[in-house]
C-alpha cells in the first residue's frame, strides 16, 4: 500500500539505495522492490564492476571475517561513487544496530559519512579510495549519517515492521539470520543445511565448491576435478565412517528461530 507520508516528511526527496552484490536471494530482490513500491519510494540499485563470484576469482580467495573485501568492493565503493555523483548535500539513513556486533557497537548514532577519510583509524590510516575526489566533494557538500534504530533490539525492529503493516524479508521466516548476500560466506552451519534442502538454492553451494576448486588450483575451465584431483585431498575410502560428523548436530538443530524468537507467525 502506498504511504504518501514518507515523501511528505522528506519533501519528496527520499531515495532508497540498494547495493547489489550479484549474490542475493531472489526473494530479497523481490522484497526490496515490493517495499519501495508500497512506500512510494524511488529505488536506485548500485552495482560494482564485479559480482561476488568474479570478485573471488579476481582476488583468488574468499572473503573472511578479517578481510571482508566483499563488503568494501561490492557495497562501500559503489555507495561512495554514488554519493560523489550527487551535486547536493545528503543525509544517509542506515538501519544498523549496536547489538549486531562488537564492531557496530563501536559506531555512532550520527556521524559524517566520509569520516574515515579525515580521521585515522587505530592503525593510523585513513581511507584512500578516491581520496582526492572525496575531499573535493566535501569542500562543497556534506553527507551525514543517521542510524535511527542504533539502540533498538532485534525485537523492536521486527515489531516496528509488523506494526507498520509490513513484513520482514521472507528469508527470516525460513530460519535464516543473514539475508544480505545469500549465502553469506560467514553464515551459520544450520543455514547451510536449510539451503541444502532446496535444490534450486543448493546450486549456489555447488558454485562455491567449484569456485573454491578454481581458486585453489584444483580445477580450471579446461581441467576437471576428476582428472586432476588435489594432491593432498583424502580419498573416499580414507574418510572415517564410524564417527558422527562434528557439524551434524548443529545441522539437525536448524529450526525457524525467527518464527519462535520473534512474533513472525502471528
From TrEMBL:
Region (Disordered): 225-246
Residue ranges with Polar residues bias: 225-235
InterPro entries for the chain: PAPS_reduct_dom (IPR002500), Rossmann-like_a/b/a_fold (IPR014729), Sulfate_adenylyltrnsfr_sub2 (IPR050128)
Domain Phosphoadenosine phosphosulphate reductase stretches: 14-185
Gene3D superfamilies, per the entry: HUPs
Coiled coil (residue ranges): none
GO molecular function: catalytic activity
Annotated protein name in UniProt: Phosphoadenosine phosphosulphate reductase domain-containing protein
Amino acid at each position: 500500500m502506498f504511504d504518501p507520508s514518507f515523501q511528505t516528511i522528506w519533501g519528496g526527496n527520499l531515495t532508497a539505495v540498494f547495493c547489489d552484490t550479484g549474490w542475493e536471494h531472489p526473494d530479497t530482490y523481490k522484497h526490496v522492490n515490493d517495499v519501495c513500491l508500497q512506500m512510494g519510494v524511488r529505488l536506485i540499485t548500485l552495482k560494482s564492476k564485479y559480482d561476488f563470484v568474479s570478485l573471488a576469482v579476481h582476488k583468488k580467495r574468499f572473503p573472511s571475517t578479517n578481510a571482508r573485501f566483499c563488503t568494501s568492493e561490492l557495497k562501500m565503493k559503489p555507495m561512495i561513487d554514488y554519493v560523489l555523483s550527487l551535486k547536493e548535500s545528503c543525509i544517509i539513513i542506515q538501519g544498523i544496530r549496536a547489538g549486531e556486533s562488537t564492531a557496530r557497537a563501536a559506531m555512532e548514532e550520527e556521524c559524517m559519512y566520509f569520516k574515515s577519510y579525515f580521521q585515522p583509524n587505530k592503525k593510523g590510516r585513513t581511507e584512500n579510495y578516491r581520496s582526492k575526489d572525496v575531499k573535493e566533494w566535501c569542500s562543497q557538500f556534506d553527507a551525514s549519517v543517521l542510524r535511527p534504530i542504533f539502540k533498538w533490539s532485534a525485537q523492536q525492529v521486527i515489531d516496528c515492521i509488523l506494526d507498520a503493516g509490513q513484513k520482514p524479508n521472507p528469508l527470516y521466516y525460513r530460519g535464516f539470520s543473514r539475508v544480505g548476500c545469500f549465502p553469506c560466506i560467514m553464515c551459520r552451519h544450520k543455514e547451510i543445511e536449510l539451503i541444502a534442502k532446496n535444490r534450486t538454492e543448493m546450486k549456489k553451494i555447488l558454485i562455491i565448491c567449484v569456485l573454491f576448486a578454481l581458486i585453489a588450483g584444483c580445477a580450471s575451465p579446461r581441467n576437471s576435478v576428476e582428472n586432476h584431483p588435489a594432491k593432498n585431498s583424502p580419498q573416499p575410502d580414507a574418510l572415517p565412517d564410524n564417527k558422527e560428523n562434528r557439524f551434524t548436530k548443529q545441522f539437525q538443530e536448524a529450526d525457524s528461530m525467527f518464527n519462535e524468537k520473534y512474533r513472525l507467525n502471528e
